[in-house]
Specification:
Elements: H1 9-16, H2 23-51, H3 54-59, H4 66-89, E1 96-97, H5 103-108, E2 115-121, H6 126-141, E3 146-151, H7 152-155, E4 166-171, E5 174-180, H8 182-185, H9 192-200, H10 213-228, H11 232-239
Parallel strand pairs: 1-3, 2-3
Antiparallel strand pairs: 2-4, 4-5
Length: 240
C-alpha cells in the first residue's frame, strides 16, 4: 500500500479530490499522535511511582536517573504530606477520660490547631450520661477533634452540680465556647444532632447538618399549637 504522506502525483490527485487530507493536516496528526504516545509513556512512569510504597522507592532509588529522582522526591514529599494529613484526620476517634492532673497535658498542650471538647460530668446525673453517649458517636464521626470527659470535681474542686452538664470548647488552650447547665442543652430530649450543631457553632467541628435540628422541633411544635387553637372567628361563633 502506498504511503499517503509521500509527495507523489497520485497522492496529489487524491488530496485534490478530498480522498486524502491535506499534507499539513497529516503532519499535525502525526505530531499529535507522537505527543499522545509521549504523554502515555510519562503517565505510565508516574504510575510506577504511585504504585510503590515509600520503602519500595528507597529500595529502587539506584535504578532511577537524575530526572527520575527529582520526580520521586516530589512524589515522596507528597505522600508524606498525605500520610500526615490522614494521621491527623484519624488521630482520635474516642472519648478520653481524664482527671485534673491530666488537664494541662490533654487540653492546654493539646497541640497546634487541635480542637478540644471537654465534658464535665458526674455519675448519677442522667443528662450527663446522655451527653457522654452522644459524645462517643461524635468522637467517631469527627476523628480530628479531641473529645474528653472528666468528673467535674477532679478538674474544678467544689464545682456545683447545678452547673452540670458543662461543656468547654478549646483551641490551643483558649476557651472558644462554654455550655453550662441542663437548660442550655434542653433537657433529656437532647439528640446527638442537636449536640453536634451546638458544638459546631463554636467552630470545633464542621457539621454536615444543613440547619439547627432544634429549629425543626420548634417549628413542628408551633404548627401543632396553631392546629389546636381555634381561629377567633370560630371562637366567636361558638360563643353566640
Amino acid at each position: 500500500m502506498q504511503d499517503p504522506n509521500k509527495d507523489t502525483e497520485w497522492n496529489d490527485i487524491l488530496r485534490k479530490k478530498g480522498i486524502l487530507p491535506p499534507k499539513k493536516n497529516l503532519e499535525e496528526q502525526e505530531r499529535a499522535k507522537e505527543e499522545e504516545q509521549l504523554a502515555i509513556l510519562q503517565r505510565s512512569l508516574v504510575k510506577t511511582y504511585e504504585d510503590m510504597t515509600l520503602e519500595e522507592l528507597e529500595e529502587n532509588e539506584d535504578e532511577f536517573n537524575e530526572e527520575d529522582e527529582k520526580a520521586i522526591e516530589m512524589y515522596r514529599q507528597q505522600r508524606l504530606a498525605e500520610m500526615k494529613a490522614a494521621q491527623m484526620k484519624n488521630k482520635f476517634g474516642e472519648v478520653l477520660e481524664i482527671s485534673g492532673k491530666d488537664y494541662v497535658q490533654e487540653v492546654t498542650k493539646a497541640g497546634k490547631g487541635i480542637w478540644v471538647v471537654l465534658h464535665l460530668y458526674k455519675q448519677g446525673i442522667p443528662l450527663c450520661a446522655l451527653i457522654n453517649q452522644h459524645m462517643s458517636g461524635l468522637a467517631r464521626k469527627f476523628r480530628d477533634v479531641k473529645f474528653i470527659k472528666a468528673i467535674s470535681t477532679t478538674c474544678i474542686p467544689n464545682y456545683p452540680d447545678k452547673n452540670l452538664p458543662t461543656i468547654f470548647v478549646y483551641l490551643e488552650g483558649d476557651i472558644k465556647a462554654q455550655f453550662i447547665g441542663p437548660l442550655v442543652f434542653g433537657g433529656m430530649n437532647l439528640t446527638r444532632d442537636e449536640l453536634e450543631w451546638k458544638i459546631s457553632e463554636s467552630g470545633a467541628i464542621k457539621t454536615d447538618l444543613e440547619e439547627n435540628p432544634r429549629k425543626q422541633i420548634q417549628d413542628q411544635l408551633m404548627s401543632s399549637i396553631r392546629a389546636c387553637v381555634p381561629a377567633r372567628g370560630e371562637s366567636d361563633s361558638e360563643d353566640d
